Amino acid sequence: MRLRRYILFFASVLASPVILAASETGDAARWKKEAAAVTIVRDDWGIAHVHGKRDADAVFGMAYAQAEDDFNRVETNYLTSLGWLAQAEGESALWTDLRQRLFVDDMQLKAMYGRAPPWLKGLMDAWADGLNYFLATHPDVHPRVIRRFEPWMALSFSEGSIGGDIERVKPAWLQAFYGKDPAGALAQFVPPSSWTEPTGSNGVAIAPKLTADGHALLLINPHTSFFFRSELQMSSDEGLDAYGAVTWGQFFIYQGFNRHLGWMHTSTGADVVDEFAETIERQGGKLFYRYGKALRPVAVREIVVPVRKNDGTLDERRFTTYATHHGPIVRVDGNRWIAEALMNKPLEALQQSWLRTKANDFAAYMKVAELKANSSNNTIYADDKGNIAYLHPQFIPKRDDRFDYTKPVDGSDPDTDWTGLLPLDKAPRVFNPPTGWIFNTNDWPYSAAGPDSPRQADFPRYMDAVGENPRGLHATRVLTGRSDFTLASLIDAAFDPYLPAFARQLPILVADYDALPTGDPMKRKLAGPVALLRTWDYRWGIASLPTSLAVFWGDILWDKASGLDTAEGLSVYDLMAEKAGPAMRLAALSEAADRLEEDFGSWGVPWGEVNRFQRLDGAIRQRFDDTGPSLPVPFTSSRWGSLASFGAHRWPGTKRYYGTSGNSFVAVVEFGAKVRARAVTAGGESGNPASKHFNDEAERYTTGNLRKVYFWPEDLHGHTERTYHPGE
């Protein structure tokens, strides 16, 4: 019997090259057939307009086109989502990989693929085929890990958001708990809080009654890491025709529009991720957690994380992980273990992400929303029937509002459990408000339509955990009282230079200065800087000296105030204005003036000399060099209320500020008889520095000069660089 097993084993080994060759031959024939059904038109900005006979053909072509533009980003997104990044980057990615694998299991994803609806399975097959055909036809491209994409992998990255819910779990927690290395976790570099650009986006919808031409308008303005998304169009003979921003490697338009409607996602402040504090007991060598009057066994699972060693070979790290019915254990708090509960519905999320791109009216869009697989985003919506809407996330767990879910709740109390999902009509929503406008800037929904917004008193506390923000105040300011919006004026509103956070903070600083005794040394030292700020109109600009001084001061004070006691639940803005005190605020101004003088020779420096856009190479982690070419950027961090966001700071070896996040894609859309739009992408469409489309949009990006979108076939006449089938 043993001999027979060995014979069968060696027969299979010897046969495998033949089987593989036959498989590859079959693949090649299928790929060529799929490619023949796809046409890719590259416009004069390098943007791909992909058309297929079937939806699946369009998916094949758009996956191929994305790989052409930046295969590195496509692969890296899937290394991250699958928990495979350490196979490429080593120990530095170990804890993020473990985080993914606590929630994402390859075998479960394969099983989900097996039970997916046939239409969705066909799209996943086409997606994998498109990427594999790219690799087969580009032998000069060398994947770091994934040499063959499998259809089930698409389920690991099904919802398009940057970060997403899972990033609430900090890798340092896992290092301390599962690595039993609290010292190492504490030793991780934590950048100053002022380096962290507020995540999120801006979305605005304008009703026809407030527009010059009587058509609904939509602003699409995601604030993400630069170069995180591709811009493209995908269409088919089966009714698909969508344009917008695609998170690298995904096969659906994440933020964009079709012939009839448009959708903009903004990161939500709704509480949809919760922590449960578990009471752990050990009996008979096994772990249990208390739930009501009972003890339940802790689920135990071994997770193996492959890790690339310095010599290029693979090692592996094994972890015994734990979970309760609330979710995986991610950290310890005192003597209790903390379990993380979040949405984990890959199959439904992928269906919702795709199907909404084919919706043709509000009813159809809401029917797709019933899948309830969007947890991290609000939605701003507009369509060609003149409807505008604000939607809260569709995945909202129903909870007992007696408990404060912004903090860990008692997992042993059954009353704290999630009890299903809320019906869509139980969440804040705005539809065609009398104000005629709707916005969201990652703030609460209770100011989305001015006086016609949902009322906070009508909803549970967990519908919002963030409140208002300066961008929301700014959006209300630019939208109120207008009745003549056009594409051009909506662009102007999106780049309005007012900075409401400084409008609040600087009068307090000036009053601090005025209250100084005449003989105080600060009185003389800060006379010039205060005089500059005293008369400022709080508007950014390339030539603005006050903007430079205010941002340097604000960043320094932000870092100092962030460390103050926040037991009262104050925002950083409140801490700066109230708890920081005159001495801290004036010291921050003194430090800001000194830093500007040291780095630029004067505390009066034009903002454009400081704040720069630079793209030197195609690396995901950018490098910056003051001696290299760069462009001035007039807008600031969204932290100060700038609607146009540019998250920038100094880097090792630089004096200038260079941005890595903020406005990444900006589009304005008009839903008339034929939809039309203007857009701009940070840098350019290609990740290849040798391509003319690597940085050809940079100047338009920095000036807010959006280009025409070639949505209709006739728009491409005279603007086509190349027409081809994948593989040609």
Q: How many beta-strand runs?
A: 29
- Gyration radius, in Å: 27 Å
Secondary-structure-derived class: alpha+beta
Helix content: 25-40%
Oligomeric state of the chains present here: single chain
**Largest β sheet strand count, sense and barrel closure:** 10 strands, mixed
Describe the strand arrangement of the main beta sheet, using strand numbers. 20-18-17-8-7-6-5-2-1-29
Q: How widely separated are the two ends?
A: 53 Å
Q: List the uncertain runs.
A: 1-22
Number of helices: 20
Mean pLDDT: 94
Percent strand = 15-25%
How would you describe the shape?
globular
Written description of the protein model:
This protein has about 725 residues and is an alpha+beta fold. It contains 20 helices and 29 strands. The strands form 4 sheets. Strands 20-18-17-8-7-6-5-2-1-29 form a 10-stranded mixed sheet. Strands 3, 4, 21, 22, 23, 24, 25, 26, 27 and 28 form a 10-stranded mixed sheet that branches. It has a 6-stranded mixed sheet with strand order 13-14-15-16-9-19. Mean pLDDT is about 95; it is low at about 1-20.
Give the helix/strand layout.
Blueprint: H1 2-36, E1 38-43, E2 48-52, H2 55-82, H3 86-89, H4 94-103, H5 106-114, H6 118-137, H7 171-177, H8 182-186, E3 200-206, E4 216-225, E5 229-236, E6 241-247, E7 255-258, E8 261-267, E9 274-278, E10 280-283, E11 286-291, E12 294-297, E13 299-308, E14 314-324, E15 327-333, E16 336-341, H9 346-355, H10 362-369, E17 377-383, E18 388-391, E19 409-410, E20 429-431, E21 437-440, H11 470-479, H12 487-494, H13 500-514, H14 521-525, H15 527-534, H16 545-562, H17 572-579, H18 581-600, H19 607-610, E22 611-613, E23 631-632, E24 646-649, E25 657-663, E26 665-671, E27 676-681, H20 698-703, E28 707-708, E29 720-724
Parallel strand pairs: 2-5, 9-19, 22-25
Antiparallel strand pairs: 1-2, 1-29, 3-4, 3-21, 4-25, 4-26, 5-6, 6-7, 7-8, 8-17, 9-16, 10-11, 11-12, 13-14, 14-15, 15-16, 17-18, 18-20, 22-23, 24-25, 26-27, 27-28
